Predict the structure.
Amino acid sequence: MIEDSCLVEDAEVRLRFSGDSAMLCAAVFDAIEKVGSVEEIASQTGYSIASVNSLLDMLSSEDFVLNASFGEMTDARSAIERVRSAGRFWNKHVMCQRFPLSLFGAHAIRDQVLGWGIEFYIFVRAAREYMARGASRIDGPTASLGGLWSHFAEEAFHDEIFRRGLIRCGLSEGNINNRVPLPSTMGLLNHLWEAAEGGELQYASVFALMQPLSEPATSESIVDKYRFLKKSYPFASPLFEAFQTHDGIDVDLGHSHLSIEPLMRDRGMLSAHEMQSIFKSIRRTSDCFDMFFSGIQSYYGNELSVSYRQVPTVGGAILASGERVH
C-alpha cells in the first residue's frame, strides 16, 4: 500500500488499485493470511462477500491467488481447469524465486549456470526411474493410461540431449557420468518417485506444475527465449541449444497437454478428497522445485564445484569418520 494505491505485481504482471479498491485489496491481503474462506474474509474486513469475490476473481485470473476449496463433487471439465490453474499458480511461485529470476534474467554467474545444467541433466535422467514406475499402472482403461505410457517412452532417453550439450560446454564425460545429485536434487527426485508410487492421479498431478501452459509454446517464442539466454551466457550456448532442441521436441509431441487430463475425464466426477490430494501434490512438487533451485544457487559458487565432485563411497565415509580401512 503506497499512499492511496495498492500495487500487486510479479515478474510479468502489475496490477494497481486506487481509492476504495486499494483499501479493499489491502484489507483482503491482510485477512487472507489469517482466515481461510471468503465468508471469513468478508466478516473480518467489513466488505461484502460480492466485493471480496470480485477482487479474488480478478487476482485469480492473473494467478496471484489460488482457490483451494471444493464442493463435494467436481465434474471433470471444471476439475481440469482447476488443476491447470493450480499448475500455473505454483509454477509462477517457483519461477519467482531468487535463483530462477537470476538465471533467466541473465544475472547468474558462470558456475551456477553450468551447475544448473548438470543438476537438470540428472533430473531428466531420473525419468527412466520415476516415470517408469508411474507409467506401470495397469488398473484402468487403456485409453486413459496410454498417455502415461507414451509420455514415459517419449522422455526416457532425452537426458542424452543435455549430456551432449554439457560436453560441448567443456565438461568431461567422466565428470558428468560420475556426478551424483546434490541433496536438494535428490529431494526432488525422491518426491517424484513417491508420487509415482502413490497412484495414477498423484503421479500425473506432478506434471501439472511442469505443463502450465494451456496453449503450446510456438517455435518463434522458443527461439527468442534461447536466443536471449545464449547471448547472455555465451559460454553455455551449447547447453541452451540442448534446451531449445528439447523444448521443440516437447511441443511436437504435445507435452503441453495435462498428463492428468485423460484420467480425470475417465472418472467423470472427482471427489473433494481427490481434488485436495491433487492440489497437495502440486504444492509439494512446487516446494521440492524451490529446494532444487536453492541447492544449485548455494552449492555452485566456484569453478571447482562444477569441475569436480567426489563420488561418495563406503570407504570414504569410514575415512571421514576417522576409522582405518583394512
